[in-house]
Structure formats: C-alpha cells, structure tokens
Write a structure and sequence with these properties.
Number of strands: 6
Helix content: 10-25%
Number of domains: 1
Number of helices: 1
Order of helices and strands: HEEEEEE
Shape: globular
Distance between the termini: 53 Å
Radius of gyration: 15 Å
CATH architecture: Roll
Length: 84
Amino acid sequence: MSRAIQSQKRLQAEVEAFNARVPLGTDVDYFEYEGAPLVRYKTRTEAQILSGHTAVVWLAGKSGCVCTSHCIPVKTEPSAEASQ
C-alpha cells in the first residue's frame, strides 16, 4: 500500500474518531499553538479532511477551519433536570 493511501486512511480514521467523540454543536477548548491560552468555541461542522492533508473542523465565531488536534472536547456534567 502506498504511503499516500496509508496517510488518507489514517486521516479518515482521525476524522471518524473525532466526529464520534465530538458531535456537531459540542463545546471545545481550542489552542492556536502549544502553550497558548484555551479559548472556548462550539463546533459548527463535523470534522473533515482538508485538501488531503489535515483533519479540520469549523468553529462558531472563529474564521476559517482549525486542526482537530488543537480542539479539546469540554466535558459537561449532566444537569439535575436531565436526571429527573
């Protein structure tokens, strides 16, 4: 199997894992670079492969797309109303 095909399969698996873990509309903490402050956004698309080389997602309030590896899903506690 060629390196390009392996790379595409790896990226597709990365996108599928992100989409399973981070549904559309989920809050994520985004960092632009290692050590940058976290900024909270909400996903506005599912993740996808950009131009065959990077797994990305679009965030509400952020211009352009961002790398999925720079997004940390926010863990939310179930509300008291939801458990009733």
